[in-house]
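Assemble and predict.
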Amino acid sequence: MTPAVVARVAGTSGEREFLDELIHHGHFLPSGEPGVYGRGMTFEDVRNRFDNLVTSVSTADSPETPRFPPIIPKRTLEKAGYLKSFPQLCGVVYSFAGNEAAALDVGERATRGDDWSHHLSTTDVVLVPAACYPAYPALALRGRLPGGGSTLDLGGCYVFRNEPSGDPARLQMFHQRELVRVGEAEEVLAWRETWMDRAKKIFEQSGLDATLAVASDPFFGRGGKLMAKNQRDQGLKFEVLIPIASPHPTAVSSFNFHQDHFASAFGIQLHDGTVANSACVGFGLERITLALFRAHGMDVRHWPKDVRKQLWPKADGSLRRR
Amino acid sequence: MTPAVVARVAGTSGEREFLDELIHHGHFLPSGEPGVYGRGMTFEDVRNRFDNLVTSVSTADSPETPRFPPIIPKRTLEKAGYLKSFPQLCGVVYSFAGNEAAALDVGERATRGDDWSHHLSTTDVVLVPAACYPAYPALALRGRLPGGGSTLDLGGCYVFRNEPSGDPARLQMFHQRELVRVGEAEEVLAWRETWMDRAKKIFEQSGLDATLAVASDPFFGRGGKLMAKNQRDQGLKFEVLIPIASPHPTAVSSFNFHQDHFASAFGIQLHDGTVANSACVGFGLERITLALFRAHGMDVRHWPKDVRKQLWPKADGSLRRR
């Protein structure tokens, strides 16, 4: 591990304190690995309630709601250009395809806690790095887009990032509630704009101190600095930032204009045969849930009345029983 | 690939026909990789409805409902003894930790579709092979069990099996709805018995032709044959089998008595300090959904009235709107 990675895995004292509090209240269940936690019943209830809040807003778009598993073909990740930008974050699935003797050695080494990785080889699948990746090839397969393009609500998908961290808000796998719009540049940009307004309102109603700001992705290495600058200069990425446990506010939601990046890579065409544009909107559900606990306290029964009403609408009996 | 694997990936003609039908009706969205599919809106609706059916039955147990992500520490898989039994099915996450030059090579090779796996190294996480694996270390951390033990409903978790297949019912990642009972041997066995009865009823009400039978796990290699025989002889595993698209009925649900295997491995103690026993019940949600489409047809509007009533109860408006 580099010194930067060692520091990241240790976490700041504020991050450690918040993590301890989450564990103490049964919201996070430690696994022994940084960034990998089970979640308690109340945490999951809040996460699902916020997810429902997004659903109540997204229905206005009448989106299609397909669902994708957390793995995609390795070739899809390659075609999307992910490895040129974020090789450090990828997750490639390896498995065992050896003979009886090798299997025996794997079993014995595993029991002792010794390394058995030399017995493994790559499979053809990788973990999904962002919920929208599987959607583009699926859209392309259907042929040209209808007039007006397509809107997808992909639900809360598990995505993977190889970044073990002591910050409880930085998980190795988390639920990204993602929506995708594919069509002409103008309609795609207008849709992203609408969602920035919608998100602002959702976070306001949730009693969270949210700031919208231009942002960039964590591109790898020195060359990545230029890519990040270009992304900012062109306003391709915006994020909503909310204070959680880190010294600086944490990104909990992003609004991304891809231009024709994905449509070109996978061959998504408008109804007239020209290449489409795309945008996506993502909500990091665990981060938002953590922000809610941070802002309103560890016991949901003591959360502000307005926030509770928002997340547990009156019609639902569970509010009273809490 | 061995000849057996080549045949498995090709699938039987019945499996290919069923897969084509699923794709034609928008229930499965092909990714290009066998065993990896997106699912359409109707498929997901049915899957969630069946999941709700299990919930309506499981509430009688007043289970805790923690949730776990689809990755666990590699050490957890090792301690559970998984690699001694099923090395061929494991999924270990690899990633990139190289320098700028290596990253450049990864990007270029990936663009060309060339191999870049020599730049990858193992991380400390693996994919969850069965939904209950993360639950045991979490239970152990809480200290001794309360009198009467513990019951968990883990919801529909994504689990991974490295077995690419042309059979649409054999997915590389799928939702396993799993429930776990930890306590004394007798209470754990009685609970498993109760669930075999409950499952029989659920499948009957869903209009599925279900058979309960003693079963064994797919242990690796020649040595695995003896382990499978022991498992059968001791009645440790039962499965519900339903015809889907394969020549033989497909296992859609299993009922497993682990004796003290997991409790010993992770140190789960009864209230008196002796080692606990455990059992789990799993429903393969995609397989069950496929079985429903196979039995009742591709168009849910034409499903038998009784089955529709079961999955879309009257109280819910969505039945009428269908």
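The radius of gyration of chain B is 21 Å.
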